[in-house]
From TrEMBL:
This is Cryptic loci regulator 2 N-terminal domain-containing protein. Pfam families: Clr2_transil. Signal peptide: none annotated. InterPro entries: Clr2, Clr2_N. Residues 34-53 are annotated as: Disordered.
Length: 220
């Protein structure tokens, strides 16, 4: 087999594998495959300033590619591999060489430049989600991306059944890191090149116990 082939296709994404086992994950461009809207993007208007800058602009392609690469590795490891296996196929993709080809529809990466105009501090933010104002790193976004790729399931109360730290306020980012990167430290981890982990149970790659808020107001 010497051609790029589809290894899995759902209404929410398609994953392709090339002959060298690279995996490219393409979010569906359908409006039903995203929770993002352009109206959620920030203003990028910049005041004219002499020496100091403080504004947002669309991030450069290099920064976007870096995020998409990191997201691709984490999604391949935590969702695509299990989805392919659940589909009855053998996973032969190279997790470490997986990438996302584009952000989900209406998501965009912005950079905030602050400080000296020649060497400003740069902080990156992913905008677009209707549920979450910004994601500040690929690790913050990946649980929410997996939720999008699972078709945006809702809890019984109508809230997103998503395990990201914003939708699921009970989860701390360090718990999420542990779940996604079981061998890494709690936080501020560098994105490693992840080997294929031990075989996990099929189906949902990430599960968060449902928090029972109904007990909070229980009379004593
Ligand atoms: Zn979320």
């Amino acid at each position: 087999m010497d051609e790029t082939r589809v290894i899995i296709s759902t209404p929410f994404y398609t994953a392709y594998q090339s002959p060298n086992n690279r995996v490219a994950i393409v979010p569906s461009s359908e409006i039903t495959a995203t929770d993002a809207e352009l109206s959620r993007h920030p203003s990028t208007a910049a005041r004219q300033e002499d020496t100091e800058v403080n504004h947002l602009e669309v991030a450069d392609e290099e920064a976007k590619a870096d995020w998409k690469k990191k997201l691709g590795v984490l999604v391949a490891k935590n969702l695509i591999k299990a989805a392919v296996e659940t589909d009855g196929k053998t996973w032969t993709g190279n997790v470490a060489r997986s990438t996302l080809l584009s952000f989900p529809r209406n998501y965009e990466l912005f950079v905030k430049k602050k400080g000296d105009r020649h060497v400003p501090r740069k902080d990156y933010y992913l905008y677009g989600s209707q549920h979450v104002r910004t994601f500040r790193s690929p690790l913050e976004f990946v649980p929410h991306l997996i939720w999008l790729f699972q078709g945006q399931p809702l809890k019984t109360d109508g809230d997103p059944d998503c395990s990201c730290k914003y939708c699921n306020s009970g989860a701390t980012q360090s718990e999420i890191h542990k779940r996604l990167l079981p061998h890494a430290g709690p936080s501020r981890v560098r994105m490693p090149v992840l080997p294929d982990g031990p075989k996990k149970s099929k189906g949902a790659a990430i599960s968060v116990p449902y928090k029972d808020y109904t007990k909070l107001n229980k009379p004593s």
